[in-house]
Amino acid sequence: MLAQYLDSALELAHYEIIEDDGSYWGEIPGFQGVWAKHKTLPACQRELREALSDWVALRLRLGLDMPKVGRLDLSRIGAAAHA
Questions:
Q1: How many angstroms from the chain centroid is the CA of residue 20?
Q2: pLDDT digits (tens, 9 = 90+) for 36-82
Q3: What is the Cβ-side half-sphere exposure of residue 49, based on CA atoms within 13 angstroms?
Q4: Which of 62, 75, 35, 29 lies closest to 51, judged by CA?
Q5: CA angle at residue 35 from 61 to 55, to 5 degrees?
Q6: Which bin fits 20, alpha (ψ -120 to 50), beta or left (φ > 0)?
Q7: pLDDT at 77
Q8: What is the third-level CATH fold of 2-81?
Q9: Domain extents for the chain?
């Protein structure tokens, strides 16, 4: 379920080229603070996946709410772990 959540969230990602240096910027709407920047798009995508994974792990550990992605809701997992 976690892998499916990450994959589904990454499908929502937006990428753009930064004109000043030609690098790529990526972020996922609804996931505040999850972003990546790199010289190539594939590297930016990898860094964004890593940032998202770390963000999800921290929020689960702290029992914080997380956005639903489609029908996937990891907040229930975090709540059950802290019950």
A1: 25
A2: 999 999 999 999 999 999 999 999 889 888 899 888 877 766 444 44
A3: 14
A4: 35
A5: 5
A6: alpha
A7: 60
A8: Double Stranded RNA Binding Domain (3.30.160)
A9: 2-81
Residue 19, token pair as written in the block: 């004109």
Q: What is the rounded distance in angstroms from the CA atom of residue 23 to the CA atom of residue 11? A: 20
User: Among 1, 13, 78, which residue's Cα sits nearest to residue 46?
Assistant: 13
- What is the arithmetic mean of pLDDT over 18-43? 96
Show the tokens assigned to 51. 């940032």
Distance linking the first and last C-alpha atoms of the chain:
20
Q: Which residue has the tokens 């802290």?
A: 82
Considering the entire predicted model, what is its pTM? 0.85
pLDDT: which is higher, 1 or 15: 15
Q: Can you tell me the distance from the alpha carbon of 71 to that of 63, in angstroms, rounded to the nearest whole number?
A: 19
